[in-house]
Design a protein that fits this description.
Oligomer: single chain
Order of helices and strands: EHEEHEEEHHE
Radius of gyration: 16 Å
Shape: globular
CATH architecture: Alpha-Beta Complex
Number of helices: 4
Strand order of the largest sheet: 2-3-4-5-6
Strand content: 25-35%
Helix content: 25-40%
CATH topology: Peptide Deformylase
Length: about 190
């Protein structure tokens, strides 16, 4: 089932999320719905707060990037990179910071350069509640960091300089008021 994505200004996007319980009712259906919602919106990551749930859950599918010539050196890894992250904890962020133009399904029509570390180590449970500790680099690390921020109540716009924040303020207000055109289901703050 395709769920509406919460727009910038919705209070749930600012909540620090709580852990998912192993016996969480409907968890597998929720994960399936999140992947379907993300794919229908042409996204590569989606966190539970973006669909109105303040739980520590996000999904990532980087296969659409595999066809992009900018990523041909890691295309094979991206093609199969479809993961569920439950109760994730960032253990380490290392390496050089690098800028990349990020966007977000909850903040349509706003894209800005964001600096993030190139390598991360993260602990998480998968969809079967098996525990993992993995290290990721490149676009995998970036997308995971972006989605991880969501479960901490942080948006990519929070990483912008004061000047950039002022420049996008008008666009953000329009999103809050529903004055934006999107091709996917979206729920705007009341």
């Amino acid at each position: 089932m395709i769920l509406p994505i919460r727009a910038f200004g919705d209070a749930v996007l600012r909540k620090q999320c709580h852990d998912v319980q192993k016996d969480e009712p409907g968890l597998q259906e929720l994960i399936s719905n999140m992947f379907e919602t993300m794919e229908s919106a042409h996204g590569i990551g989606l966190a539970a707060p973006q669909i109105g749930m303040d739980i520590r859950l996000f999904v990532v599918d980087l296969s659409p990037l595999a066809e992009d010539e900018d990523y041909e050196d890691i295309a094979d890894e991206l093609r199969t990179f479809k993961k569920v992250f439950i109760n994730a904890k960032m253990l380490e962020e290392t390496g050089e910071e690098w800028k990349f133009n990020e966007g977000c399904l909850s903040i349509p029509d706003v894209r800005e350069d964001v600096k993030r570390r190139e390598t991360i180590t993260i602990e998480y449970f998968d969809e079967n509640f098996e525990k993992h500790t993995d290290t990721f680099s490149d676009m995998r690390a970036r997308v995971i960091q972006h989605e991880y921020d969501h479960i901490e109540g942080i948006l990519f716009t929070d990483h912008l300089s004061s000047l950039k924040k002022k420049l996008v303020k008008g666009k953000l207000q329009k999103i809050t008021h529903g004055e934006v055109s999107v091709t996917y289901k979206m729920r705007f703050p009341k």
